[in-house]
Write the structure tokens for this entry.
Amino acid sequence: MYSGTENLATAELPGRQAGCDRQAESVAGWNDGQWSWHLNHRGADMEIKPQAAVIPDDTRQLEQGKYGPIFPKTPACYGFTIVADVKPGRADAIRGYGQALVEKLEQDPELLEPLKLHYLRWVLFDDDKRFMYQGIFDTDFDKYTEDAVMLFTKAGVNTVFENLEGFPEDWKTNPDAFVRFVRAHHCPSFLEYGEYPYVTGDEIKKALRVKSALSEMLDQMQ
């Protein structure tokens, strides 16, 4: 086992074997102090305090952006809840779009990466007459919507919103109308909670990669 006294930059690392070369290289450049710190602190919990925030009902006090109030980042990051009426007979099309999205993500897991999403949740309710779209993401409200228009247009795909009453038919060439539809149908939350507040999706993925790399390295060095 590594004692913390060798020079890790020149030491022969079992982690360089096939299957974990990348993980080994990611930490091979650490100096003795860095490596010793990680050995001594693995298993120690980082202090993360859950937080909640109340969102004011009166948005006049918020900074105003291009399309309206700029909703603040909360412990749950950014997000919106859109509720709209479904066009008659389009509920099955919405479900079909969900299945198509699953298949597209299987082919290209990075398809939605530009949106910086944490989660999406779609709900049909009131006998399939209404649709709810919930998203949590790391960009602000308007940027998410503008990025979605660019993403769908570039990918040559439609949006599930085309099945909703009042959605602009020219959304691909009129992103302002898309954003205004989203804002008009947004139901703001008044309380948001984060178990690990304000942490971005990229930070979470990076932490998981580091954890995996360290675990493999430590397992092979024992």
Q: What stands out?
A: The first strand starts at residue 51 and ends at 54.
